[in-house]
């Protein structure tokens, strides 16, 4: 399964931990060439890339704060210099950015949450498009953009998470537009939309709150990052999903069935 991912050049933003790291590990096991990214410049992250590469593929860490457009461009340039092109882009960097009710939201908070979840994906995709187009032309197969959406983008988000939820709905929707603009170039666009996944994203929650959330999930528990990863491989693989574009795949243990 996923054998066509061997040697594919896969850039995964926000992949130093959580869902992004588990996905990077899964791609490496499939023999892919993986670009890891986070906002920090730190030797331990280069060590992490070596550990990922040891799983079977190649891997390199690229520091870039994707809330900054020029760093989105630098990330794509550095990845292409290292691996020679891009076959798959995964826009996974993102986060809550804090919780604020409507009456507490100011311009700085709005800007930060939108930059982290919307601008980051927009700008990395913008700079990746020429490379994805070229790779599709050279291989004769589709190339792929996959973004990490959210159940919050479907149902509005929890208390104080309105801008985060709206930014994910924005991401879900902009994919639909990109399908119209770039299908002629043989580039596919799909979203993996997680429910509640056990990562540091939920570090602010008490055991009581976690139990309450779990009781609202049909499977009765949070998901794991490892349970998310294969969905990204599915959308990355032309053999598995070459006729699938513009879709949102909800991976949420039955928390919601949109
Ligand atoms: P996480 O906090 O474990 O990982 C976030 C990753 O993004 C880290 O690698 C971090 O370094 C990186 N990152 C953060 N800010 C960045 C920046 N400015 N520039 C570059 N990289 C940056 O979180 P996670 O739970 O694994 O979340 C990954 C994605 O999944 C996010 O987009 C998140 O919104 C989404 N998501 C998570 C859940 C969940 O329940 N965990 C649910 C729905 C959606």
From TrEMBL:
Residues 8-177 form the Ketoreductase domain. It comes from the Bacteria. SUPFAM superfamilies: NAD(P)-binding Rossmann-fold domains. It holds the Pfam family adh_short_C2. CDD domains: SDR_c. Gene3D superfamilies: NAD(P)-binding Rossmann-like Domain (3.40.50.720). Keywords: Oxidoreductase. Coiled coil: none annotated. The keyword Plastid does not apply. PANTHER family: 3-OXOACYL-[ACYL-CARRIER-PROTEIN] REDUCTASE (PTHR42760:SF133), SHORT-CHAIN DEHYDROGENASES/REDUCTASES FAMILY MEMBER (PTHR42760). Belongs to the short-chain dehydrogenases/reductases (SDR) family. This is Oxidoreductase.
């Amino acid at each position: 399964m996923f054998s066509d991912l061997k040697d594919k050049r896969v850039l995964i933003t926000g992949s130093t931990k959580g869902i992004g790291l588990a996905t990077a590990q899964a791609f490496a096991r499939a023999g892919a060439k993986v670009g890891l990214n986070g906002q920090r410049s730190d030797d331990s992250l280069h060590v992490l890339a070596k550990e990922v590469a040891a799983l079977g593929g190649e891997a390199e860490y690229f520091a870039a704060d994707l809330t900054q457009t020029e760093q989105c461009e630098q990330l794509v340039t550095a990845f292409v210099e290292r691996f020679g092109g891009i076959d798959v882009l995964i826009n996974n960097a993102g986060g809550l950015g804090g919780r604020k009710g409507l009456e507490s939201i100011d311009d700085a908070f709005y800007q930060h949450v939108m930059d982290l979840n919307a601008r980051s994906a927009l700008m990395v995709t913008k700079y990746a498009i020429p490379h994805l187009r070229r790779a599709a032309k050279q291989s004769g197969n589709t190339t792929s953009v996959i973004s990490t959406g959210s159940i919050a983008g479907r149902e509005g988000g929890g208390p104080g998470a309105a801008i985060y939820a709206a930014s994910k709905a924005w991401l879900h929707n902009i994919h639909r537009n990109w399908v119209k603009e770039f299908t002629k170039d043989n580039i596919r666009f799909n979203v993996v939309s997680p429910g509640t996944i056990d990562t540091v994203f939920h570090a602010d929650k008490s055991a009581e709150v976690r139990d309450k959330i779990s009781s609202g999930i049909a499977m009765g528990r949070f998901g794991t990052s490892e349970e998310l990863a294969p969905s990204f491989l599915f959308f990355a693989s032309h053999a598995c999903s070459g006729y699938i574009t513009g879709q949102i795949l909800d991976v949420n243990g039955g928390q919601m069935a949109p």
